[in-house]
Amino acid sequence: MAQESYEQPLVRRSARIAKQAVPPTTASTTDTNTPSPTNRIATLPPAASLTANATGFSKRDITLLQRKQRLLQQQSQSQFQSTSSLTTAQQTALAATLVFAQHEAGTAFCISREGLLLTCAHCVAETVEESRTVKDKEIYLLFAGGRVVAARCVAWDGVRDLALLQITASQPSPPPLSTTTSITGTITSDSEFVFPYVDIAPAAPAASTRVFCIGHPGSEDLESSTARATNYDVLHVSGGRYYGVADGANVHDNSEIGALMHDCWTYWGHSGAAVCLARSGGVVGVHSSWDEGTGMRRGVAWEAIVGFLRERGVVLDL
């Protein structure tokens, strides 16, 4: 599996939410009560049994979900189960990574065993008005091992460009394919699910620290003048370095472009992917965009992540 690829086309996210550098306000955020970890999580049927009425998906979207599940399961068996291809930190982060079931919708990652997910706000909604309608709808995602879950948006911050989701339903986790990884997660009883997760790093790293990013590159080549497939894997692991926060940037305003700088390879669909420390796997950023002038990848910085989560009452063990 490719780890570094700097000749790949450089792209930025397709939409912005706000244009002015302002701190988060109630006008740019949408919150609901974050579900208690003791809430029961419903059991989803196999992907083949999911219907348009149950999911709100079109027949095409259901077919896409089933295809993504099949490809993730194949990739898990052929690549991710190989201990020689991934470090322990990468295996842990990969197990906690999810792809949106919808077409080219982005990436997310799990930050708690109870199923709290973090992603970019623009992966969920482009405007405050849209975020208010989305919070009452189920969003479908798939873990790296192919496990389908449904989640609801419980917090959305368009200025920080972060959204918090809570898993509300899940397929039972299949038995792990290997004892060396935990890509499939575990299930403790018929109704109590435990999900693989990644920790938030205890502090922002120094410049030039090695990092990696795991994201969901789009299947369409958006740099080509004619429609053609990219043939990328559903999930891609890339390595690089963290370069700190851009000069003059407000770490809490990522509405125009992410304040964090890194050079891991990314593509359309990587928005919402965790940027993790190479050694420990701790999350130090969320990939969101790129700088057209320099080609530098950009994201939401550690400070904004911690501020966003603490404001929503998420307990962090830093």
TrEMBL record:
Pfam families: Trypsin_2
Family matches, as InterPro entries: Peptidase_S1_PA, Peptidase_S1_PA_chymotrypsin
Region (Disordered): 1-41
Matching SUPFAM superfamilies: Trypsin-like serine proteases
Composition skew (Low complexity), residue ranges: 23-39
Name of the protein: AT hook domain-containing protein family protein
Source species: Drechslerella dactyloides
Lineage start: Eukaryota, Fungi, Dikarya, Ascomycota, Pezizomycotina
